[in-house]
UniProtKB/TrEMBL annotation:
InterPro entries: Anti-sigma-factor_SerPK, HATPase_C_sf, HATPase_dom. Gene3D superfamilies: Histidine kinase-like ATPase, C-terminal domain (3.30.565.10). Residues 15-114 form the Histidine kinase/HSP90-like ATPase domain. The keyword Kinase applies. It comes from Streptomyces nigrescens. This is ATP-binding protein. Coiled coil: none annotated. One of its GO terms (molecular function) is ATP binding. Keywords: ATP-binding, Kinase, Nucleotide-binding, Serine/threonine-protein kinase, Transferase.
Amino acid sequence: MDDHPSHPAQRVCQPDSAADARDFVRAFVALLRPAPPAGTIQNLLLLVSELVANALRHAGAVTALHLRADRERIEVLVEDPSSAHPQERRPDLSGSNGGFGWPMVHSLALDVVILPGACGGKTVQAALAR
């Protein structure tokens, strides 16, 4: 897929699980030319997995997963039906209450923005360097 800056690559899906989202990511990056480095792909898979899993767990659904790429960035947008923003929590080292995901999202992404959804809900937008 040509990723000329004036024609960024874009794909949208509605995953039912983090595994579905990872499959979507793999199919998306397979179309990009030049291919992103392996480390970028791994970070993208982790970022998308976490954002989708959080939306499913805390909002009950993912209404859309958008992936966009140009020569410099890969953007991930996860839409869900809840207007509640993600909350950073103290990580639970016993493993029962999580708290690791949101800080990980921020450490992987160049930037993270939470936007109000057009019809309610919200969109979490995160970007990685390509």
